[in-house]
Design goal:
The chain has about 290 residues and is α/β, with parallel strands linked by helices. The chain is built from 11 helices and 9 strands. Helix 5 links the parallel strand 5 (about 100) and strand 6. Bound molecules: zinc ion (ZN). Keywords: Metal-binding, Zinc.
Length: about 290
């Protein structure tokens, strides 16, 4: 069932669990992620990142995402991840996306806020939910979503932390449905195991309007206990991708080595699909937070 993210995130926060938001840049990942959500009977957010458009254009994968969402047995939100330019956001809307992350976090605070306020009003008239971001989690485009990130240490991550009062002002002013904030995670691969500032999540949750959800990006690579502490502190949407994508490559590589590279491509694809479905099931089980 195709939905936007409003009700599924509202229910998640009330219920003390989080909804997974996973990039699906190919059909195997798309089937695996929706399959895992169906296995556990939980709603899911699937997303296409603007930086993945060089892998597959949104006009090719987007309609497939919408089609799979419609026939899924669980609520599925089709979301744009880190749309950073207006034209791209419009392309997502034309493809039938039900939710948009309009990421203008690279702009000065006031400008980010003014543009998101204007956009959110239009999006809500179209029944499309909106996510924004405060603070910079990436320094370059290549860093995000599976790119090669180096040097994410505790010291460099700390400089990105979100101020709760600023988050509250932004949410009140723009009316966004969800806000990605920084409290210890980063995109891509960590140089040292991340340490989340759970007190900051609580402070952000407390300061923001009740109807705005707190979002964690860079959920890959954070240990389950910390993820669950962040959920209990009020984080109801978690973006996840990099570690699953890397684990799948490693699995495929090992399987091919065992067979001396002797396999049909469709067998490799099917094996990757099965692996990711199992992997995503484990991730989504953590996000259920024991509920
Ligand atoms: Zn992100």
């Amino acid at each position: 069932m195709l939905v936007n993210m409003k009700k599924i995130l509202e229910d998640a926060e009330k219920g003390g669990y989080a909804i997974g938001c996973i990039n699906t840049p190919n059909v195997e990942t798309l089937r695996a992620v929706i399959g895992a959500a169906e296995d556990l009977n939980v709603p899911i957010i699937i997303d296409h990142a603007q930086v993945h458009d060089s892998l597959i254009p949104i006009e090719e994968i987007g309609p497939k995402m919408v089609e799979y969402a419609k026939k899924a047995k669980v609520p599925v939100c089709v979301h744009l991840d880190h749309g950073s330019d207006y034209n791209f956001v419009m392309r997502a809307i034309r493809c039938g996306f039900t939710s948009i992350m309009y990421d203008l976090s690279a702009l000065p605070f006031e400008e980010n806020m003014a543009k998101l306020k204007e956009f959110t009003k239009i999006a809500h008239d179209l029944d499309i939910t909106v996510e924004a971001e405060l603070g910079i989690m990436t320094s370059t485009e290549e860093d995000s979503h599976g790119g090669v990130t180096t040097g994410w240490t505790h010291e460099t991550i700390k400089k990105t932390f979100t101020d709760p009062e600023q988050a509250a002002e932004f949410a009140r002013n723009t009316g966004v449905d969800a806000l990605a904030v920084c409290f210890g995670t980063a995109h891509g691969i960590y140089a040292e195991p991340p340490i989340l500032d759970i007190e900051r999540v609580k402070a952000i949750r407390k300061a923001m309007p009740k109807e705005t959800r707190v979002v964690m990006h860079g959920g890959s690579g954070v240990d389950a206990d910390q993820v669950q502490a962040a959920i209990s502190a009020g984080c109801s949407k978690i973006n996840y991708y990099s570690y699953m994508a890397k684990a799948c490559s490693k699995h495929v590589y090992e399987e091919l080595e065992k067979k001396n590279g002797n396999a049909f491509w469709h067998e490799v694809q099917e094996d990757a699909y099965e692996f990711m479905r199992r992997y995503a099931r484990e991730v989504l089980t953590v996000f259920k937070n024991g509920k």
